[in-house]
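Long-time lurker. I teach an intro course on protein structure, and each term I like to show students one example going from raw sequence to a predicted 3D structure in token notation. This year I'd like something fresh instead of my usual example. Would anyone be willing to generate the tokens for the chain below so I can use it in lecture? Attribution to the forum is fine with me.
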Amino acid sequence: MRRTFNLIRDDRGTSLIEMALLVPFLTSMVIGMIDVSRGYSAKLQLEQAAQRAIEKAMNNEKDTTMYQTLRAEAASAAEVEASAVQVRYWLECNGVSQNTNPSTMDADYEKKCDNGVAYARYVSVQITKAYEPMFRVKMLGSNADGTFTLVGKSGIRVQ
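-- Reply from a regular --
Happy to contribute to a lecture. Here you go:
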């Protein structure tokens, strides 16, 4: 009986048992932090690729062929298909967009505002890419397959 009481009061293995209980929790926290940081890094890379394409718009002549070049440049820098890149060009007269449909970009390139109206031309690049975390668990904001859709955007006034 005395030996049983001694075993009950003995706390020499307590820290090992506590560590065994905490390791799965701590491991999942570390893996979660790594996934979040990898996702943030991937989003930052998309935004930087869009910004590089916009820098190209600042350096080149503003014509319709340049915008196709921007799409190819952004797709290459972001390592995505060209279909995942949307380049939008628009004209604003007194702050009102005159063309909102990217498919009419070529036809609207020569469009002009009435005389005496404040105008501005803009170009924006948007890149979309799927991010796959280490563990595909359905979470808040994830797609049905456990991936996340990341979007990188950049834009500038060109005129």
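Some talking points for your students: The mean pLDDT is 81. The beta strands are 85-93, 96-97, 119-131, 148-157.
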